[in-house]
Each structure stands twice: as C-alpha cells, then as structure tokens.
Design goal:
A 4-stranded mixed sheet has the order 1-2-4-3, sandwiched between helices. The chain has helices at residues 7-38, 43-80, 93-106, 139-144, 147-162, 165-191, 198-245, 248-260, 298-306, and strands at 82-85, 112-116, 123-126, 134-138. It is elongated. Helix 2 crosses helix 6, helix 3 packs across helix 5 and helix 8 (248-260) runs antiparallel to helix 9 (298-306). The chain is built from 9 helices and 4 strands; from the N terminus they run ααβαβββαααααα. It starts with 6 loop residues before the first helix and ends with a helix. The protein has one domain.
Length: 308
C-alpha cells in the first residue's frame, strides 16, 4: 500500500528542495557565465571571469536575501497593493473569521489578512514562518465565492504556510529581483560604453556575454527550476487544503470560478509573483506551455480534488 504523505513529509521535502536550489542556482549561474564568455576569450580567462563575476554576485544575493528575510513579505504585499484588515472591519469581518477558523482547523497560528482591491479572483500567502505569515485575498475572490469555496481557498493558502512553501517562494522571488537588477545595470554599462579602442571593444564583448548569461539565467533557467517545484507544491496544497476543510468539492468549485478570471492588474507583469498565487495572476498560460507554467492544469487539479 502506498504511504500517504503527511504535512511533515511535505515540510521535509521542501527543505530538501530549498537546499537543492541553493546549490543548483550558483552552479548553473557560474557555468552559464563561463560558457558565454568562453565564446569571446580563451578558456582560462573565461573561467577567471566566471569566478570574478560569481563571487560579488553571490555576496550581493546573500545580502539581498537577508534583507528579504526581514522585509520580503512586506515587499510582496506592497507589489500587490494589499491593505490589512482585522476582525473589527465591518466589510470583511466574516473573511477574517473564516481565516481564523481555517487556521484553527489546520493547527496553525492565525495569519495576518490582507485584501487586494482588484476584481480578479486570486490569493497568495507569504511570510518567513507560520507565526508571522500573511494571507492576501482579492476583493473579487471574496465577493464571487460562497463561504465554503472561500474557506477552501484559504485552506489552500494555509497549506502553503504549514508546508513552509512561503519561505522558499519569498527567497526565490527576492533573489530573482537582485539578479535582474544586476543584469539591467550591465546592459546600461554596455549601452553607454565608449567603443573607441580594441581593448574597450573586447571589454564590451565580455560584458555583453556576461549580461547574456544573466538574462538566460533570469528568464529561462530560474523560472524552469522554480516552476517545476511550484507545480508539485500546488497539488500538495490542494490536497492538504481539502483535508483541512474536509470539503474537496468546495475547493474544486472555487478553482473553476478562479480559472475564468484570475488576472490581478498589479501582479499581471510581476512574473516572479505568479508562482505564489493560487492561479496565474496574468490570466494566461505561459508561452512555452507546461514547461514554464506556474501551476498545474486547472482541469487536473479539479479532477484530483473530485476523486477524493
């Protein structure tokens, strides 16, 4: 008989995946810088360049991740334009109570609750640990789902909190932000450099290759690694959320409604935020299909829930 995974299995799995990402990201990044610079310079020089780029980048990423550990959740909520509510807010009192009830059923502390003023149907969770977690819900998802469906969505987000998915997402999102910033700075340096001598032309070529390595890393490698993990975690959060509420049908019905309009205006262009939401906030499928998709197909998620 196949062993049923517990919440502790998912937590352990995510800790292992975090460790793998921490190792894979710098290794792949150094390899990319080496391969691209090798095109325009000898192999030894390319290796030296890769290491000279990798060390300061690693230091900057480490500092940025420490900052994100302290302020990452605030950054994500700010990106979404979310506003905090509490149990005395007359318009959203029942929403807060629903979060409180689901947290109690999940055996977790009640997270802070935020509302995103957008008519799209979406939600996400963030924070370092379950003790300082946050659940953010759009106005649309609150207004258009019935009470049981909303509790199913909240339970899904509470599952991400319990499984420690929120920590991994926060670190990856903020880490991607700093490498994108460095790539942009390199591009500006290339654009405004003086091409008056051969040495400067060679330096520009090397800078261009380093920028190309950053670009491939940021927009192809990192999303593929992150999305592969993200899709598996969505299935786990669906299953755990259904277990918390004992009502898989409610979450399945919620996903049907969410799939019709999951677009959130402030998050539509924030590609790094797509994986933390219950559905893609851009409201459309990835260009490269399932490889780059932030979530499993909705039909498959619904099918699994309805089979419970």
């Amino acid at each position: 008989m196949k062993k049923v995974k517990t919440v502790y299995d998912h937590i352990r799995s995510n800790n292992i995946k975090t460790a793998i990402l921490v190792v894979l990201f710098p290794v792949i990044f150094i390899a990319l810088v080496f391969l691209f610079t090798w095109i325009v310079m000898p192999i030894n020089d390319a290796l030296n360049t890769a290491m000279s780029v990798a060390i300061p980048t690693a230091v900057v990423c480490l500092v940025w991740m420490l900052i994100s550990w302290a302020f990452g959740d605030s950054m994500m909520l700010s990106m979404a334009g979310a506003n905090q509510i509490n149990d005395t807010d007359p318009d959203y009192m029942y929403v807060y109570k629903s979060v409180e009830n689901v947290a109690l059923a999940a055996g977790l502390p009640t997270p802070r609750v935020y509302i995103i003023n957008d008519s799209g149907l979406n939600a996400f969770a963030t924070g370092r640990t379950p003790r300082d977690a946050t659940v953010a819900l759009t106005r649309g998802i609150v207004e258009k789902l019935d009470r049981l469906e909303l509790e199913g969505v909240i339970a899904h987000e509470m599952a991400h909190i319990g499984n420690r998915d929120i920590r991994l997402d926060m670190l990856v999102i903020t880490g991607m932000g700093v490498t994108v910033f460095i790539a942009d700075a390199l591009l500006r340096s290339i654009t405004y450099s003086n091409h008056s001598s051969d040495d400067k032309n060679n330096s520009t070529a090397v800078l261009f290759m380093v920028w190309l390595a950053f670009t491939v890393f940021n927009f192809i490698i990192t999303p593929i690694l992150h999305m592969a993990i993200s899709r598996r975690r969505e299935y786990a959060a669906d299953a755990t959320g259904a277990y918390i509420t004992r009502n898989p049908k409610a979450l399945a019905n919620a996903l049907r409604k969410i799939s019709v309009n999951s677009r959130v205006e402030k998050l539509a262009t924030q590609n790094a935020m797509a994986s933390v939401c219950i559905a893609n906030p851009s409201g459309k499928r990835a260009f490269l299909g399932e490889i780059m998709a932030t979530h499993p197909p909705v039909k498959e998620r619904i099918k699994r829930l309805e089979s419970m």
